User: What shape does this take?
Amino acid sequence: MKGRAQWARTAAAGLALCLVAAATAFDGGGPLRRPLVIGAVYPLSGPQAPGGREELAGVRTALALAGGDLSPRRVELRVVDAGTPAQARAAIDRLVEVDHVPIVIGTYGSTLSEAASARADELRTVYWETGAVADDVTRNRRYVFRTVATGGSLGRIAVEFTSRVLVPASGPPTAATAAIVEVDDVYGRAVADAEAAAAAGAGIRVVDRVVYDPHAYDAGAIAARVAAARPDYLWDVSYIDDGIAIWREIVSRKVQLRGVIGTSSAFCMEEFGRALGADAVGVYAADKPYASEVSAAALSPAGRGLLDEAVVLYRAHNGGTEMTIPAVAGFVGGWTLFHDVIPHVRGAVTADALRTAAAKVDVPVGAEINGGGVRFAEEGAPDAGQNLRAAAVVGQWLRVNDMAVVYPPAYATARPRIPA
Assistant: This one.
């Protein structure tokens, strides 16, 4: 790792991201070969743009850091902005049929990924998901791979944390109740269905499931319905704008709850903490890990070294900012592709050659910068292509604009603060 660390520091000092994103491998000092073009589909405008840009920045950082591993190949990212499912599907058509890419990386958002991954699979082009969590993205698809946790796993860890940590600290397990607020799409259903199933197994009674349209909702009415159900706990599956609006209404109505756990795309986002300030303090969020929030104990020596290199390079090309949750997810997905898959393809880089190489990836837990590892479910499994070693955690806003991982214990950097 020492050589790569030195390379990263040199790159941080002198390279512009626009140059390294087009990749950097020469063939023995000779002329550049024809680049391997990889499609990249992310929301770079519209409501999901902040997360999409951060995730893409993580991918670009991974590409820069993996430059030596890719030699003698050059890799060029062909980036397409897609803010709607229709745009995501059209982007796949363009990248595959016009640019003839063998693989597309993306997309941050579940509704975008559902459309893009389905179309790529139809066209027998590898789709490499770095951030979206909806379970259906990898369901019964041969050419789709995902490096992050599923929505189902995030829902299950939210319930697990509630039943194992919050309930014992608050009251008799048999008396615990919960309400679920869920956005009406593939992301919301994936998380909420898993929460409902896990709750039944944990003995927590779900007293209401409030389903809403993220494009036309009444935050006050949602909060009123939660208040009427009188749950002990609230599990909220929202996007950032609606998540903030709903939580403001719940706070303003002084709805009495023993604990609140949101999920990715809202409650874990920095914007949630900035917008709500003190009203966010105490709230939990189940999501993928944040670079600065994972305990060093969860990382192997290789994982810690890789994290240090990634942070240095990311800061250098992103105004000194820290790696956010989407940035970490993008880096892990990109690093797996650029370090563990493409360099192991012999001969032409085709979709089927990439599938073969991906099936052999075996990165132990703790070796990725988020504390996870990588091993994809085998072909023929219902979730073939899903990373079975993806990391999922629960964080808590401990102070204004300050979130820390509090569960599971192996990843925690702080203890949860549970009101008496």
The radius of gyration is 21 Å. Residues 1-32 have pLDDT under 50 and may be disordered. The domain at 2-149+298-389 is CATH 3.40.50.2300 (Rossmann fold).
